Amino acid sequence: MIVTDGADNASRADPNVVRTSLQKSGILVYSVGIRGRVGLDTTEIGALANSTGGRTLELKSSDDIGPAMRQVADELHNQYVIGFSPEKLDDKLHRIVVKVRRPGAVARTTRMYFSARLEHR
Question: pTM, whole model, 2 decimals?
Answer without folding.
Answer: 0.73
